[in-house]
Task: inverse folding
């Protein structure tokens, strides 16, 4: 069995992490095995399942401006003690200039996988861009979840391969009975218009704008409700914003969920107000569930896999966003199975899994492993 080492921030229920887990569940684990370096000491959402499937978890320090030497030393020691990892596949860009360099020095095959089309906003974003500029020519192989993400990290002339963020399309396909059941369990009335969002409560996801948009939607459509799925460091701040806006009774904080596929069935429109997204895997899942999607202009155009996606300028006022959301109000009952369109576009997890596993086997064969 050949073991592949994935380097992540933490294996919580984010888009990248969910894709990795979908591949891990789908692949032939008698041939290849995934192990993970998590850059946190916390127990993460997928840790138990990883170990149950045969994977190993290692914990390294979270990098900061004050522990770069310690962080580098950890990787140098780890790679010396674990010669079995011939491929180091990095998904965490912030610390990649160190762990990719150390893996190169140790003679490993290095892969850098970009999952975002921006380094962030303001001075902090500029600092990240300059720090990560060296990554353009550091890894042996470069992957990206979209062309936009690849150009952002590796440049217009960058040599990178697009790896689609595959999902389990059959799991997300629209099911009318599931919709009825979930709405009933959540106490949602037939005439209530449910706007949904699945995202970490972090700056990138721009929940502040999302709440302002919903406030305008609610003023025009009293039967509207907002369903927020996820958790994160800004959740309390968003709860406070909801309360101050007088929306407490109309916003459903669902927390961290393992049944996102079912919750999508209960929604009527998916709203994504992110400042940036390499692709937006939650949007792919929403499309597979037959949901119309209203998304930020900063989200990669490659996310549009069906005719159910409408882009809105990130700088537009909340009223313009609300108008776009309300356009779908009269189509509440017009859901159809669009999972086949997602599959044909190459976003089924079986395709992604085969693409990556074939890659791993090919490069290991070249190394005579």
Result:
């Amino acid at each position: 069995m050949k073991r592949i080492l994935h380097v992540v921030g933490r294996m919580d229920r984010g888009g990248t992490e969910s894709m990795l887990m979908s591949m891990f569940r789908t692949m032939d684990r008698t041939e290849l095995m995934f192990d993970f370096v998590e850059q946190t000491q916390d127990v993460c959402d997928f840790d138990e399942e990883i170990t149950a499937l045969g994977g190993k978890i290692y914990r390294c320090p979270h990098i900061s401006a004050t522990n770069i030497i310690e962080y580098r030393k950890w990787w140098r020691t780890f790679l010396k003690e674990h010669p079995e990892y011939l491929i180091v596949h990095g998904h965490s860009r912030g610390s990649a200039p160190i762990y990719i360099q150390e893996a190169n020095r140790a003679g490993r095959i290095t892969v850098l996988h970009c999952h975002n089309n921006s380094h962030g906003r303001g001075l902090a974003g500029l600092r990240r861009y300059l720090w990560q500029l060296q990554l353009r020519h550091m890894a042996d192989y470069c992957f990206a979840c979209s062309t936009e993400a690849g150009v952002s990290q590796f440049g217009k002339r960058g040599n990178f391969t697009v790896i689609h963020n595959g999902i389990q399309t059959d799991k997300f396909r629209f099911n009318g009975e599931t919709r009825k059941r979930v709405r009933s369990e959540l106490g949602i009335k037939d005439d209530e218009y449910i706007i949904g969002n699945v995202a970490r409560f972090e700056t990138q996801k721009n929940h502040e704008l999302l709440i302002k948009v919903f406030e305008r939607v609610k003023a025009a459509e009293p039967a509207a409700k907002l369903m927020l799925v996820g958790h994160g460091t800004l959740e309390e701040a968003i709860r406070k914003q909801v309360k101050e806006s007088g929306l407490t009774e109309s916003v459903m904080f669902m927390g961290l969920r393992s049944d996102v596929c079912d919750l999508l069935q209960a929604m009527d429109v998916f709203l994504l107000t992110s400042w940036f997204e390499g692709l937006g895997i939650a949007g792919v899942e929403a499309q597979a569930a037959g949901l119309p999607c209203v998304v930020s202009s900063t989200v990669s155009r490659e996310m549009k896999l069906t005719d159910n996606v409408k882009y809105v300028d990130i700088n537009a006022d909340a009223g313009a966003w609300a108008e776009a959301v309300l356009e779908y109000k009269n189509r509440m009952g017009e859901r159809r199975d669009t999972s086949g369109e997602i599959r044909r576009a190459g976003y089924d997890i079986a395709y992604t899994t085969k693409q990556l596993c074939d890659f791993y086997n090919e490069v290991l064969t070249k190394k005579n492993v």
About this structure: The first strand starts at residue 2 and ends at 8.
